[in-house]
Structure formats: C-alpha cells, structure tokens
C-alpha cells in the first residue's frame, strides 16, 4: 500500500508540471501572443535572466525576432511599441488604469507606501499633488545657487587631481564622480544637508549600501513569483543583514528628523510639505518612505545617463569636438555658465536627448497589470490581471524607428532634422523616446534632472579635455541591469582644457589672427598652417597613429614647400586672407564656425578675446628665450 501511495505521489509530481507546461503553451489565454516556447512554458527563464542581469538584452533579442509584442512568461507580455506608452501609462479613469504590479512594488515591512510604491491611484495622486510644487521650473530657479555650488565643487575636485598629475593629465573613473555630485545635490535639496561625497571624494556609507540593496531587490522580486521561495528566502537572510537594512532605513528617518527641526533660509523639497501652521502634510511614515526612494530615483538615474553620455562622447572625438566648440565658443570659463545659458546650447541639448535615448535611466518599465475586464494593447487583447511592460532600451534602438539606431548621433535631435525631408533623421520616431515616462506617474523630478545634466556637462567640458583610454572603453551595450543599470568604471584621461592649445591647430590659428592684428600696418600677411599629411612633431603624442599612417606621411619640407608655393602664387597673399587658416594643400579654410569666430574676435569686437589671451600667454612663456 505504501509503495502504491509513493508511486502515485511521484506520478503527480511528474504529471502536474508537464500538464501545466502544455496548458501554458497551447491553451492559455495568451497562447496567441508570439514568443519563445521556453519562456511561454514556465517563469524560470524570466527569473534566470533577471538574476543574471541580462533581462533587458534578452528582451531586445526576443523583440527583434518576434516583433513589438512578445510573450515573456506564461502570464506576462512585453511591448516595444511607441503606442504602448499611451495605451499602458497614460491617464485613464481609475477603474481602467493599468496599476503597478505588487510583485515589484510591495511595501517593505515596517514602512508605509512611498510616492513610487503607492499602487492605488487616489493615494498616489494625493502624494504627487503635495510634492509637485517642489519640482516645478519656478522652484528650480530658487535652487540654482545650490546646484551651482556642487557642480563647481565637482570641477574643483577634478582640477585638483589633474593639476597634481601635470600636463599629461590623469586617468580617472568618472562614474563615481557623477554619483558624488547627484547624491550631494539631492541630499541638500531633500534634507538640507549634503552627503559630503564631493567634500571627501568618496561615497557616503549609506550610498555604498544602497547599490547592493538595489541589486538585492531583483532577487526578492524573483522569489515573490513563488511564495514558498519568498518564505524560504526570508528565513535564510542572516540577522546581521536584517539589522543592516534597518539601520539603512533609520539613517533616512534621522535625516528627515533633523531637517524638520531646522528653518532653512532657502526653499527645499521639505519646505513645500510644511503648511502654514508648521505641520507636515504627509504622514511621517509616508514621508520617510518617500524620501528614501526619492534619494535613489533622484540621484542614481541622472548619474547613469551622465556616465553613458560621456562614454559615447569620448569614443567619438568628432562629436565631442563639436560639443566642446559650442560650449567654449559661448563661455570664457565655467563660472559664466548658468542654467538659463546652458539651456540655450542647442547641441548640448541634442547630446543629452541622444544620451537619454541610448542610455535610458530605467531600461525597462516595470510591469503594470491589465485592468478588470481585459484590454486591447497595441492591437492585442489581454485578459485582466496580465502583467505588461514596455522595453524602453529595445524601443529606443529599434532600426525600424531610428536611422542608425545603435549609433550616438546628437544631430538627429537638432531642429532641422525634424523638418528637413532630406535629413536621414527626418523619419525618426522621436515620440517613442520617453525617458521620464508619461501620464500621472511620469517622473516628477525631470526638470531637476535636465538642470543637473546640462550644468554638469557644460561645466566639465568647458574646463577639461576628456579622452578615451586605450583598452578601457566602456561599452554601454554590455552592461547588466538589476532594476537599474549596473554601471562599470568609465576610465578616461582628463587634462585641463588649456593644455591642448600650444600643440593644436586651434592655437596656431589664434596666433595668426593676433599677429595679423598687431602687424597689419606693416603689410605682412599671417596665416596658420595645417601641415596635412606631414610627418611632424604634432603626432608625438599619438604614436600609434603615426605608426599606422607612416606610409601616407610626407616630409615636412615637402609640406612647407607646398604652402610656400601657394603663397607665392598669389592665392594666399591677399589682405583679406590675413589671419586666415590654410588647409592642405595651400587652400584657405572656407568658413569659420560661429563659436570659434567669437574666440578669434576681441572683446571690444563682440568676441571673447581668447586669441589675444593666448598670444599674451605664449609671449609670457617665451619671453626669456627671445
């Protein structure tokens, strides 16, 4: 009898999963949705990808193969369609909203709902309405001095390291520096006190622990798909880790307590949550939970995009050069850069938009649930309760929606690209890119994020030259995702911006223009020479390039004779060419970029006077040798 019972149990254990798999693949209400059979049969491939951090890239591969609608689990569907933004995330009546999936947004034990975790629309709307005034453009203007303070401190800290290394510059991992800045800014903005990361040039212990907790959240969410696994996981967590989590949360509680005991002279986020009678309009539990999540959402995401943008820029010197030219052509120093002035830099704005496209701060939008009665999403009917998600990373890199979709090309965001039918980017689906989401749960802090990105990039590129370090290129496409992107070191060589003038073609042009001004009465014509493919000392810092191109290089004497011939022929020696720039072989440069033109002019001529400053700097350095 016992043997028969054991055999029956074993048979059931074998038959049930097989029956379940057959049902999931062939008879489920989602069996009409395309997708890989193994993912449709069981949740295990989804969980395995989640735990490995490859889920975003796995989703991209599936969408490229099966199309914009893919079944990614027995009961879940993924979308890579621009229409899904409005059909899933836009405003709807309360009973028709796609609510957040509790698997991902369940409140922590002993904590209340935060702005992000509140699932019920009414509760979320109440909290958002109270917080919204703190994140408006008007509020941002009152906080500019604080933003400027921390971004200037970032520049100062990097300058200290660069100057200590000398003219060759220094190798730096820029990824943590972006985190230092954004966390310090939010610390002051939210709690009235910085985390002092920039002050000490290292992470605050609370932030170091935060990165591990974000990764752990993926593991906890994976366990929730199987209640027995979640129960087992809770029992296996060491008491020391549980205590560490409590201390981590308590530090935020303490920061909130300290802030509420102060009276700041300037408005911050908390000041908008205190009414005229001095009472906080949030419950204390809601306040603590909300500021815990805002500290992460308001800092790590912005730092991620900044890391991605700089990674692409150093890998593309021409793009970097155009952006640097725009910034340095507008400002003589980083101290001149204000939020309003930075917002007028067209190419900088385009570079940030392109960074948000290729490096979205949230690569995949966490699942929502189809409302009662079911719904049609992107032409596909889905039963009530089906988790649905949108793949921002996949959508933003869709070759059918973007020209050269995988390439970092800021030009696609310039105004002319959307109106000029001859532009290769004319048909780009720009509306598909929604890095801050949309609808009633769109990112509340997007104005702050834009301000930080503009100010940080503008001030850094006005002050320093950044170059890729051979063998240490950061490839964004290979990064893993655990809810947020797991950043890797961004190793770059950093030099002071002025260090490049003496050996650059730009410095030669500055000198020729200033020489022409000072000696035009003597009827001397001064031009700057680009030696072209000449084997000169200009390549001394690029030996690998010299090695690769040596068969194409000419003697410097030949280059000089060619330019002299052009000068004697009458093509260059005309007064209107005085101060001009000669390009190979013996032709005057046909035009000057507007930003560079301002540097060539003196201040009394409406320029920056940079050419005159450079002449005087060179004169001072060479006086003893004259």
From TrEMBL:
InterPro entries: Cyt_P450, Cyt_P450_CS, Cyt_P450_E_grp-I, Cyt_P450_sf, Cytochrome_P450_monoxygenase
Cofactor requirements of the protein: heme
Residue sites binding heme per the record: 443
GO biological process: aflatoxin biosynthetic process
Pfam families on file: p450
Keywords of the record: Heme, Iron, Metal-binding, Monooxygenase, Oxidoreductase
Protein's name in the database: Cytochrome P450
Keyword Heme: yes
Protein family per UniProt: Belongs to the cytochrome P450 family.
Listed GO MF terms: heme binding; iron ion binding; monooxygenase activity; oxidoreductase activity, acting on paired donors, with incorporation or reduction of molecular oxygen
Lineage of origin: Eukaryota, Fungi, Dikarya, Ascomycota, Pezizomycotina
């Amino acid at each position: 009898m016992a043997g028969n019972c054991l055999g029956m149990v074993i048979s059931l254990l074998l038959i049930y999963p097989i029956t379940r798999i057959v049902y999931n693949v062939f008879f489920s209400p989602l069996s009409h949705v395309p997708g890989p059979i193994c993912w449709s049969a069981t949740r295990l491939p989804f969980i395995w990808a989640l735990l490995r951090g490859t889920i975003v890239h796995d989703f991209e591969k599936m969408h490229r193969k099966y199309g914009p609608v893919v079944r990614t689990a027995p009961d879940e569907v993924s979308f890579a369609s621009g229409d899904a933004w409005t059909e899933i995330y836009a405003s709807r009546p309360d009973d028709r909203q796609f609510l957040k999936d509790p698997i991902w947004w369940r409140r922590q034990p002993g904590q209340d709902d935060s702005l992000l975790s509140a699932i019920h629309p009414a509760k979320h709307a109440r909290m958002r309405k109270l917080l919204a005034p703190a994140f408006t453009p008007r509020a941002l203007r009152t906080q500019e001095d604080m933003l400027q303070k921390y971004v200037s401190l970032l520049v100062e800290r990097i300058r200290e390291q660069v100057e200590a290394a000398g003219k060759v510059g220094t190798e730096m991992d820029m990824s943590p520096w972006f985190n230092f800045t954004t966390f310090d800014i939010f610390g002051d903005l939210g709690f009235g006190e910085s985390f002092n990361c920039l002050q000490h040039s290292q992470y605050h212990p609370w932030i170091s622990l935060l990165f591990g907790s974000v990764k752990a959240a993926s593991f906890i969410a994976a366990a929730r798909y199987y209640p027995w696994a979640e129960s087992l996981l809770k029992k296996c967590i060491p008491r020391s880790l549980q205590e560490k989590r409590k201390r981590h949360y308590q530090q935020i509680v303490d920061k909130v307590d300290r802030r509420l005991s102060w009276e700041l002279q300037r408005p911050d986020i908390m000041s908008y949550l205190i009414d005229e009678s001095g009472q906080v309009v949030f419950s204390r539990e809601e306040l603590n939970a909300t500021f815990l999540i805002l500290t992460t959402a308001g800092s790590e995401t912005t730092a991620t995009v900044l890391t991605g943008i700089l990674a692409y820029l150093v890998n593309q010197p021409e793009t970097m050069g155009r952006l640097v030219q725009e910034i340095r052509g507008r400002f003589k120093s980083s101290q001149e850069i204000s939020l309003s002035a930075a917002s007028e830099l067209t190419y900088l704005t385009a570079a940030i938009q392109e960074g948000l496209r290729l490096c979205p701060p949230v690569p995949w939008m966490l699942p929502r649930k189809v409302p009662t009665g079911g719904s049609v999403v992107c032409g596909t009917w889905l039963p009530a309760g089906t988790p649905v998600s949108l793949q921002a990373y996949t959508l933003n890199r869709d070759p059918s929606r973007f020209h050269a979709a995988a390439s970092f090309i800021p030009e696609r965001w310039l105004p002319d690209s959307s109106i000029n039918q001859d532009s290769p980017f004319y048909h780009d689906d720009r509306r598909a890119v929604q890095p801050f989401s949309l609808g009633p749960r769109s990112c509340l802090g997007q104005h702050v994020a834009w301000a930080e990105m503009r100010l940080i990039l503008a001030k850094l590129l006005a002050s320093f030259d950044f170059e890729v370090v051979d063998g240490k290129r950061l490839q964004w496409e290979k990064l893993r995702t655990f809810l947020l992107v797991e950043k890797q070191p961004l190793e770059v060589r950093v030099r002071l911006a002025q260090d490049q003038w003496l050996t650059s073609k730009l410095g030669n042009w500055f000198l020729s223009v200033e020489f022409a001004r000072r000696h035009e009465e003597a009827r001397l014509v001064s031009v700057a020479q680009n030696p072209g493919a000449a084997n000169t000392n200009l390549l001394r810092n690029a030996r690998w390039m010299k090695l690769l191109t040596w068969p194409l290089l000419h003697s410097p004497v030949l280059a000089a004779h060619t330019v002299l011939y052009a000068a004697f022929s009458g093509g260059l020696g005309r007064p209107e060419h005085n101060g001009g720039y000669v390009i190979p072989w013996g032709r005057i440069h046909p035009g000057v970029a507007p930003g560079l033109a301002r540097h060539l002019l003196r201040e009394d001529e409406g320029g920056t006077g940079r050419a005159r400053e450079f002449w005087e700097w060179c004169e001072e350095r060479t006086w003893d040798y004259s």
